[in-house]
Amino acid sequence: MTATENPVSDEYSLANYANDPERISEYSVWNSDVTSAIHAVEDNADAIFTWDYNKGSRPALDKLYEKAKTSQWNGQTDLDWSIDVDPYAVLTAADPLEVQYFAENPESPLYKFNEKEWAEVGVESFKWSLAQFMHGEQGALICTAKIVETVPWIDAKYYAATQVMDEARHVEVFAQYLDTKMGGIDYPCNTHLGLLLDDIVNDSRWDMTYLGMQIMVEGLALAAFGFMHQTTEEPLLKKLLRYVMADEARHVAFGVITLKEIYQDMTAAELRDRQVFVFEAALRMRDRFMRQEVWERMGVDVKDMVKFQLSMPDELRVFQRMLFSKIVPNCRKLGLLDTGDGWLRDRFTDIGVIEFENWVDTGEEYMELDEVTKDRDAEEAAR
Ligand SMILES: [Fe+2]
Ligand SMILES: [Fe+2]
């Protein structure tokens, strides 16, 4: 898809498109055959061999690869699956300000909910979030397998191969947690997330897999995992998230390091395509966090709820904005905010997330998050 065909690139319809409740509340179009256990996506890219086997010609990627080799963990033996989990006891509201607004505003479709219904909203939202994380992890598994095929550099192929293994572990542990601790996997992939994953896999340009997955989907996941890790007291989930986050930080760093090199040589028109892709991905991720499937399950009119969520004052959208706290600084580091007259800076300003531009970018942060493996080594040594 080119910038001119993309609805988001039309400045005049942008606001309407972004905030169209019809579009956002339509959450069942993606996975139309719910009886099917598979979903096929056309992958338009060539598989690339390289005959340049010079390991370490890109030192930053080589360092990341060596780090990844010693940071592997095993979800079956490093996590204590004997811990009992009561879903009602462990939940924390994703965003207390939002819950308060939903509960106390007479316009809210949830205004008359009683305590029991609120407990259900909490459990369902929690299960929904974990299920979307799991589906996103499978997206990452597929995308990094694609990167192994399509990236032309040997150091990047080596590193991406370690990430394929990481993502397999992530899908495995989220699926196991849902299945054995949350009563099963019963939320399908959200439409907005699914459309985004399809677009990323569809695209023939190898850097778009990185941009969509490593920078956008994984950048958001890193922020969301961090938030859940901070707020949950449940020891199994807390440890699981800590392990996953240490891996994710490397993954985002992989994207930042690789794209920084190739964006240096791109034309303004090529970079605009990337900016548009970023903004459309950002919208889809915002849209998915409206958790349409949960409202349907709670018997709430989905479109009314989406309209209500869209009208929420900006200052209350703390959680939603926080999801962009990794994406925006990484886009700045890649030069995507200000290229082409600052098109992306303006869009991020419109959706209220530009405030994060000077936060730490993940090119630097991953070593810190990687401390997890040292913690584990220390634990083992103490045994
Ligand atoms: Fe992952
Ligand atoms: Fe990842």
Tell me about this structure.
The chain has 18 helices and no strands. With 383 residues, it is mainly α. Helix 6 (115-150) runs parallel beside helix 8 (191-202). The radius of gyration is 21 Å and the shape is globular. The chain has a single domain (98-382), classed as Ferritin (Up-down Bundle), CATH 1.20.1260.10.
For this structure, what is the CATH class?
A: Mainly Alpha
Strand content is: under 5%
**Helix segment tally:** 18
CATH homology group? Ferritin, core subunit, four-helix bundle
> What do the pLDDT scores average to?
86
Helix content: 55-70%
Derived from helix and strand composition plus strand pairing, the structural class reads mainly alpha
- Going by CATH, the architecture would be Up-down Bundle
Report the oligomer: single chain
Sheet of most strands: none
Name the features:
single chain, 383 residues, mainly alpha, Ferritin, disordered N terminus
Describe the secondary-structure layout.
Elements: H1 11-18, H2 21-25, H3 59-70, H4 87-90, H5 96-104, H6 115-150, H7 154-181, H8 191-202, H9 206-231, H10 235-263, H11 268-288, H12 292-297, H13 302-310, H14 318-322, H15 327-333, H16 339-350, H17 362-369, H18 371-382
Bound molecules: fe (ii) ion (2 copies).
Summarize the structure.
With 383 residues, this protein is mainly alpha-helical.
